[in-house]
Amino acid sequence: MRIKEINYDDKTIMKNGYPKIKKLGACSPGGEMTPFVWNGRLMRMELDDPTNGVDSSVPSCAIIRDVETGKVLSRFAEDSYFHAAYVEDDTIYVTGVDMKDRGTINVYESKDLINWEERVLLSNPGWVYYNTGLTKGPDGYVILMEASHPVEHIGTGFTHFFATSPDMREWTFMDYDLSFTKERYSGGPWLKYSEGWYYMIACELLPCRHFTNYIYRTKDFKDWYVGYYNPMLMADEDDRLISPRAADLSDEMIEKITTTGFNINNSDPDMCDWNGKTYINYLAGNQLGFYYMCEAEYDGTVAEFLKHYFE
Is residue 231 reached through a cis peptide bond, with omega within 30 degrees of 0 on the bond before it? Predict the structure, then answer.
């Protein structure tokens, strides 16, 4: 069975209007990220890649940053890439694709953000994975995996696949026909369970190579509802602001962001609840080696933010 997208029709009304997202500016040179709250402080896991993916011989890693101070608390996961984080109780889990075996996803666990334990989360020989998203629903854990191979299972560009686990150790892959989506480019995914729904955000390629984000949701991974107020983020001049909380942005990078850096991209978003608002991070740039991280906020909780797109 293939998925079905459910979109607006001629009876759809605009009840709430588009969510108001306030962009706050560039905040880090980091790549894929996850903001989270730890002991009452706003933190962020970031991919730290000095060459922005251009030179694989230069080591990259994941870092944990205190958002308010900019201080880096730890560095780890040098053997993986495309990191994402998930926090449950007193443990943070960071997933990353093994760059020596692209069909293997590693997980790094910590209870203090300093010391990390590594293990293989899952392996699927012959596959090539990129970004991941991990969440927990009523029946256990679900992981979303962006893939480009094997070609017989891939649609246009990248395609997202899913697996489930009761304990984050034994995984069952969903039917590959339940992938999202083979009809068009879909990258940089994010997944979260909230109030009975699995919400997914995916990067969509617009005509003439511009990139944005669309929000979808499902209960069964068969029927996917398209958010009425898409797209979520579009590249604009506010991406060239510099946030007061910017950290590790060199003078050269700031000059490029604010003057000549070509920006046609808002992608790879992640978010968390912070002080009654939704704190959002996303990547801007050109999808050709120039990228930087921005921050934004929505005046409401993450649950309210996600529901807004469908009401």
Answer: yes
